């Protein structure tokens, strides 16, 4: 009886830790052939791939309210309506539940993907448009429209976690539709932006009157990390992930790009971006948090007092190659907040153990030790520890101040004087003095 | 792969078939005030690929005026390339792009009040590089000409995001709490001097008593006398301990005891003193 249960637990356990379940949607199942290198590389990293056509009537992301996939790759630009229970709203729900999504579009973009992008704060340009760059196209691969674009490393976002080492990356080929980040999308990451000379337009149309997208505001690849740390990437080009572009040699028209006749950097780029989307890179977690008075090891039993010296420690770990290792970042900041931060300090990192030491402000109240670490490419680390800070007991203030000695002296000399005076006043007897003075006074009286 | 190769061949074929070269002529640029007409004086003429000698500078009410003609190099026919853009590039790499439209003679005019144009800048201010981009898939010589700089003053009000919507990816400025400084205290010499001054009245009292000569002749011979005076001393001693270590409740407990006896003794002492006086009178 127990053996099957253990087996089941082990099975479930391994499924959750090792193999992430990925649903890959292509326009047809031919995606298996045209994008085989990319899909195989994901499979080789130990994930379960389920490849379906985007209009398959059996598609679902949830079963009994539970996610049945961890990640969703939509490599189907032209899809108008998703099959099964899938819809842009459903995918949005998937993201809310923590699922990660990679979307690759193209110039034949359908309504489904445009709607999906809008749901997540991005906008793809219209059907039939392409990103055109007359200064940065590939001389050999391009069909004369200058839409096969060669992406230089300075167009990539400055984050090794997302795009890999951009300095070592060969030029990346791109052919597809332009993307723009919504004005209110504060979380948007411009993963790959177009060069300043690019614009998004129908390459066959008459002169551009009013391009919706032009210059480096045009995004080729955009992404965001939602507030629940779910990751979404929109690529304007599905060809970017294709076998043809992975194997292609780059012959840029722009003489500035030195790399000529080399194999494109698409494979490396696709690998690092898929690792980022699938949360294989740039994932942080808080292991333990501790705060205490200087010289102690545990938090005080009751409250902190004002002007106490306090030590705060947080252990942060990073997921690297499937293992949790100490996080080496040196820019984690601690805030001591009472509505507004009173103290903000960059912590010292000793092999993942981040510490900060400071003196508690001389203002009482309820405070928070707050670590709010948000960096491009990393998951958001947010940790709050609430403590109260109380004023000193009346006995904890300084006593016997030198400059108050005159007050002490006068009070006690007064008391002592009173004791003596009471004795003298009560028991002193005036001895009558014989002589003129008394007589005179008696005379006056009379 | 095969498809791509075919595409490439077709593309190259197309390119050769319609390849032409464009010439940009009569390029003039300048800043105009609100109602000013463009004339030869207030516009600068520039040959292709040269740069304005000095930076243009403008505020929100002025206009940027740029005009030029695009013709085919061979034959001089009117060329209508797909991309004729005026691009402002800010120092941080952000940019804003304006499209230009040709009239029938193939001449282009850009004339915009910078305030209305400023909406495109997303509140970026400062120095911008000006680029003229003329390109087309069929053009052999696409032109991306950096022809000068323009310095723009603050064009529009910055819209501040509420704190809850701000997203910071960079480390923030460190904050160190500034503690309230303790008040300045007098030096030890001064406070000691004043301690002595405060003790002086007691000494003066002793001196004067010594001078006039005191006696205790009226003291009644009674046990109540020492009890009363030690009680009084004890009350003040209790005061001292209240200052040093006791709390109020302890002090009151002792005071009730001490006070009762001192009161009783004081009463007795005064009564006997009054009795003595009556007798002597």
Automatic annotation (TrEMBL), chain A:
Domain of life assignment: Eukaryota
Span of the signal peptide = 1-19
Protein location: Endoplasmic reticulum membrane
Q: Which GO terms describe its biological process?
A: protein N-linked glycosylation via asparagine
Residue span, OST48 N-terminal domain: 21-277
Q: Which family does it belong to?
A: Belongs to the DDOST 48 kDa subunit family.
User: Pathway it acts in?
Assistant: Protein modification; protein glycosylation
Cellular component (GO) terms are: oligosaccharyltransferase complex
Q: Would the keyword Signal turn up in this protein's UniProt record?
A: yes
Q: Which residues cross the membrane?
A: 405-427
Keyword list (alphabetical) reads: Endoplasmic reticulum, Membrane, Signal, Transmembrane, Transmembrane helix
InterPro entries according to UniProt: DDOST_48_kDa_subunit, OST48_MD, OST48_N
- Give the membrane topology: Single-pass type I membrane protein
Tell me the function of this protein.
Subunit of the oligosaccharyl transferase (OST) complex that catalyzes the initial transfer of a defined glycan (Glc(3)Man(9)GlcNAc(2) in eukaryotes) from the lipid carrier dolichol-pyrophosphate to an asparagine residue within an Asn-X-Ser/Thr consensus motif in nascent polypeptide chains, the first step in protein N-glycosylation. N-glycosylation occurs cotranslationally and the complex associates with the Sec61 complex at the channel-forming translocon complex that mediates protein translocation across the endoplasmic reticulum (ER).
How is this protein organized at the quaternary level?
A: Component of the oligosaccharyltransferase (OST) complex.
Q: What is this protein called?
A: Dolichyl-diphosphooligosaccharide--protein glycosyltransferase 48 kDa subunit
Per the database record, which ranges form the OST48 middle domain? 291-429
Q: Which Pfam families match?
A: OST48_MD, OST48_N
From TrEMBL, chain B:
Question: Where is this protein localized, as stated in its record?
Answer: Endoplasmic reticulum membrane
Q: What's one GO BP annotation on this UniProt entry?
A: protein N-linked glycosylation
Among the Pfam families in the record, one is: Ribophorin_II_C
- InterPro entries in the cross-refs: Ribophorin_II_3rd (IPR055374), Ribophorin_II_C (IPR056790), Swp1 (IPR008814)
For membrane topology, the record states: Multi-pass membrane protein
Transmembrane stretches, start-end? 188-209, 221-246, 252-270
Annotated signal peptide: 1-19
Please list the residue ranges annotated as the Ribophorin II C-terminal domain: 179-275
Instruction: Give every Ribophorin II third domain span.
Output: 27-152
Keyword Transmembrane helix in the entry? The reply is yes
What GO terms fall under cellular component here?
A: oligosaccharyltransferase complex
Q: In which pathway does it act?
A: Protein modification; protein glycosylation
Q: Which UniProt keywords apply?
A: Endoplasmic reticulum, Membrane, Signal, Transmembrane, Transmembrane helix
What family classification does the UniProt entry report for this protein?
Belongs to the SWP1 family.
Q: What does this protein do?
A: Subunit of the oligosaccharyl transferase (OST) complex that catalyzes the initial transfer of a defined glycan (Glc(3)Man(9)GlcNAc(2) in eukaryotes) from the lipid carrier dolichol-pyrophosphate to an asparagine residue within an Asn-X-Ser/Thr consensus motif in nascent polypeptide chains, the first step in protein N-glycosylation. N-glycosylation occurs cotranslationally and the complex associates with the Sec61 complex at the channel-forming translocon complex that mediates protein translocation across the endoplasmic reticulum (ER). All subunits are required for a maximal enzyme activity.
List the protein's name. Dolichyl-diphosphooligosaccharide--protein glycosyltransferase subunit 2
Annotated organism of origin: Caenorhabditis japonica
């Amino acid at each position: 009886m127990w053996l099957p249960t253990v087996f089941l637990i082990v099975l479930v356990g391994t499924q959750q830790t090792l193999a992430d379940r990925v649903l890959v949607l292509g326009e047809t199942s031919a995606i298996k052939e045209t994008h085989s290198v990319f899909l195989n590389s994901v499979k080789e990293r130990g994930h379960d791939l389920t490849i379906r056509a985007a209009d398959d009537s059996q598609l679902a992301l949830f079963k009994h309210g539970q996610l049945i996939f961890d990640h969703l790759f939509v490599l189907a630009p032209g899809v108008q309506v998703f099959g099964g229970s899938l819809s842009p709203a459903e995918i949005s729900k998937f993201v809310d539940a923590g699922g990660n999504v990679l979307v690759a579009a193209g110039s034949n973009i359908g309504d489904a993907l445009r709607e999906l992008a809008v749901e997540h704060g991005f906008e793809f340009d219209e059907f039939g448009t392409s990103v055109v760059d007359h200064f940065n196209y590939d001389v050999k691969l391009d069909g004369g429209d200058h839409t096969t674009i060669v992406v230089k490393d300075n167009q990539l976002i400055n984050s090794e976690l997302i795009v890999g080492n951009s300095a070592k990356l060969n030029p990346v080929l791109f052919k597809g539709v332009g993307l723009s980040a919504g004005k209110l999308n504060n979380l948007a990451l411009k993963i790959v932006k177009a060069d300043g000379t690019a614009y998004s337009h129908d390459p066959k149309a008459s002169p551009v009157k009013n391009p919706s997208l032009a210059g480096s505001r045009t995004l080729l690849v955009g992404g965001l990390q939602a507030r629940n740390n779910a990751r979404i990437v929109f690529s304007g080009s599905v060809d970017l992930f294709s076998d043809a572009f992975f194997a292609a040699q780059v012959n840029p028209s722009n003489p500035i790009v030195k790399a000529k006749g080399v194999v494109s950097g698409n494979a490396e780029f696709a690998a690092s971006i898929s690792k980022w989307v699938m949360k294989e890179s740039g994932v942080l977690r808080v292991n333990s948090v501790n705060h205490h008075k200087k010289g102690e090891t545990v938090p005080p039993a009751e409250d902190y007092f004002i002007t106490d010296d306090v030590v705060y420690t947080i252990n942060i770990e990073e997921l690297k190659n499937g293992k949790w290792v100490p996080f080496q970042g040196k820019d984690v900041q601690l805030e001591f907040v009472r509505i507004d931060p009173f103290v903000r300090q960059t912590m010292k990192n000793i092999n993942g153990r981040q510490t900060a030491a400071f003196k508690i402000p001389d203002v009482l109240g309820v405070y928070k030790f707050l670590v709010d670490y948000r960096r491009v490419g990393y998951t958001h680390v947010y940790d709050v520890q609430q403590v109260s800070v109380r004023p000193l007991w009346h006995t904890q203030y300084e006593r016997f101040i030198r400059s108050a000695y005159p007050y002490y002296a006068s009070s006690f000399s007064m008391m002592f004087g009173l004791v003596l005076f009471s004795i003298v006043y009560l028991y002193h007897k005036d001895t009558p003095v014989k002589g003129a003075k008394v007589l005179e006074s008696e005379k006056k009286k009379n | 792969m095969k498809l791509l190769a075919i595409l490439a061949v077709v593309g190259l074929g197309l390119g050769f078939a319609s390849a032409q070269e464009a010439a940009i002529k009569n390029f003039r640029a300048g800043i105009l005030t609100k109602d000013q007409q463009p004339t030869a004086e207030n516009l600068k003429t520039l040959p292709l690929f040269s740069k304005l000698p000095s930076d243009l500078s403008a505020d929100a009410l002025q206009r940027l005026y740029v005009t030029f003609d695009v013709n085919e190099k061979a034959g001089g026919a009117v060329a209508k390339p797909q991309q004729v853009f005026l691009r402002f590039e800010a120092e941080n790499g952000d940019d804003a792009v304006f499209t230009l439209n040709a009239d029938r003679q193939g001449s282009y005019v850009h004339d915009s009040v910078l305030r209305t144009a400023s909406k495109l800048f997303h509140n970026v201010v400062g120095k911008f590089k000006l680029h003229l981009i003329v390109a087309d898939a069929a053009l052999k010589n696409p032109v991306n000409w950096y022809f000068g700089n323009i310095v723009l003053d603050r064009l529009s009000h910055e819209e501040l995001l509420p704190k809850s919507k701000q997203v910071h990816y960079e480390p923030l400025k460190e904050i160190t709490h500034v503690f309230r400084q303790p008040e300045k205290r007098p030096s030890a010499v001064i406070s000691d001097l004043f301690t002595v001054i405060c003790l002086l009245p007691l000494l003066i009292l002793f001196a004067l008593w010594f001078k006039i000569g005191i006696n205790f002749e009226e003291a009644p011979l009674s046990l109540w006398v020492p009890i009363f005076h030690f009680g009084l001393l004890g009350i003040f001693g209790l005061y001292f301990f209240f200052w040093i270590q006791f709390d109020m409740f302890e002090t009151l407990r002792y005071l009730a005891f001490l006070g009762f006896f001192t009161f009783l003794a004081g009463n007795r002492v005064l009564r006997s003193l009054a009795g003595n006086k009556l007798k002597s009178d």
